[in-house]
Amino acid sequence: MITSSAPGKIYLFGEHAVVYGENAICCAIELRTHVQAEFNDHIEINSVLGRSGLNFEKHPYVSAAIERMKEFAPVDGVKININSELPVGSGLGSSAALTVSTIQALNHLFHCGLSLEQIADLGYNVEWDVQGNASPTDTYVSTMGGVFMLPSRRKLELNDCGIVIGDTKKNSSTKKLVTNVAELKNRFPEIVTSILSTIGKITYCGEYSVCNGDYESIGKLMNINQGLLDSIGVGSLELSQLIYSARSKGAYGAKLTGAGGGGCMIALADASKTVDVSDAIKSAGGVPITTNITDKGVVVETKR
Ligand SMILES: Nc1ncnc2c1ncn2[C@@H]1O[C@H](COP(=O)(O)OP(=O)(O)OP(=O)(O)O)[C@@H](O)[C@H]1O
Ligand SMILES: C[C@@](O)(CCO)CC(=O)[O-]
Ligand SMILES: [Mg+2]
């Protein structure tokens, strides 16, 4: 039996734009998904969503990961148990953490010898298989841990600042939201391409601010990024309420993270302000989530 785990993630900048090759800065967080894999006489997948066999409706990412792993090993009889600290479908990369930890568990159970780069690439393929469109960002950062500029894969450092997360209700998947943006881009190609390109430029400016620890500028760039995400239809009333509430209590900046349409927002704040910002998120109807950035990517926790 193998148990592996992988971290979730947050975006400082660049979600959705990174699907079209623009820059993004993405950070792994300490909340993790844990996957246990053992040999079995058939395929069985157990999670908070229930029990199934190979089932692309109930467990699309695990089922797609098993299919991809069949290129390397005879994955016909395996039992997968999933436990996660990440809210499902909330923009914190729960699909990527699940995908990457599943691949790593099967990698070690069947002695495939896959490298971290190969795991990240396979994870990207799985998210693409399920969503019909994806960037390599979520699965790369969940594999490697840390803070990265994608697609260049430049590693960055982000220390000495507080990250406060607020969760809101969400009723749309990343697959649907990414599809919606593609449809908007098809309808207004010049306008949406210009917006996505501007988000890429925000990220480029943001990298300079991150490297210089200029949190005031990072916050202002996050706020501009949020306005552009709203313009392409991936915001929500609930997210806006939390975002403006966090900003009113002294956050450097606040924006949605991940695919949007609800789910999580993040606020960047000085350590002295994180309690006030967290209270503001709660008073605006959000569920505050406390976590930190982590350098710990996908790992094997136990082998028995
Ligand atoms: N703990 C879990 N157990 C089973 N399936 C899970 C779990 N966590 C995530 N999933 C799968 O991932 C899907 C959510 O992926 P989705 O990409 O929509 O959200 P996310 O990854 O949390 O957000 P984002 O992609 O914006 O970061 C769920 O519908 C489910 O199929
Ligand atoms: C919306 C998106 O940019 C981030 C989802 O966390 C999709 C992707 O990059 O695969
Ligand atoms: Mg996802």
UniProtKB/TrEMBL annotation:
Residues 210-283 form the GHMP kinase C-terminal domain. It holds the Pfam family GHMP_kinases_N. It catalyses: (R)-mevalonate + ATP = (R)-5-phosphomevalonate + ADP + H(+). InterPro entries: GHMP_kinase_C_dom (IPR013750), GHMP_kinase_C_sf (IPR036554), GHMP_kinase_N_dom (IPR006204), GHMP_knse_ATP-bd_CS (IPR006203), Mev_gal_kin (IPR006205), Mevalonate_kinase_arc (IPR022937), Ribosomal_Su5_D2-typ_SF (IPR020568), Ribsml_uS5_D2-typ_fold_subgr (IPR014721). ATP binds at residues 87-97. It is found in: Cytoplasm. Belongs to the GHMP kinase family. Mevalonate kinase subfamily. It comes from Methanohalobium evestigatum (strain ATCC BAA-1072 / DSM 3721 / NBRC 107634 / OCM 161 / Z-7303). Catalyzes the phosphorylation of (R)-mevalonate (MVA) to (R)-mevalonate 5-phosphate (MVAP). Functions in the mevalonate (MVA) pathway leading to isopentenyl diphosphate (IPP), a key precursor for the biosynthesis of isoprenoid compounds such as archaeal membrane lipids. GO terms for molecular function: ATP binding; magnesium ion binding; mevalonate kinase activity. Its cofactor is Mg(2+). Keywords: ATP-binding, Cytoplasm, Isoprene biosynthesis, Kinase, Lipid biosynthesis, Lipid metabolism, Magnesium, Nucleotide-binding, Transferase. GO terms for biological process: isopentenyl diphosphate biosynthetic process, mevalonate pathway. Pathway: Isoprenoid biosynthesis; isopentenyl diphosphate biosynthesis via mevalonate pathway; isopentenyl diphosphate from (R)-mevalonate: step 1/3. Its EC number is 2.7.1.36. Residues 61-146 form the GHMP kinase N-terminal domain. Homodimer. The lineage of its organism: Archaea, Methanobacteriati, Methanobacteriota, Stenosarchaea group, Methanomicrobia. The active site is at residue 138. NCBIfam families: mevalon_kin, PRK03926.1. This is Mevalonate kinase. SUPFAM superfamilies: GHMP Kinase, C-terminal domain (SSF55060), Ribosomal protein S5 domain 2-like (SSF54211). GO terms for cellular component: cytosol.
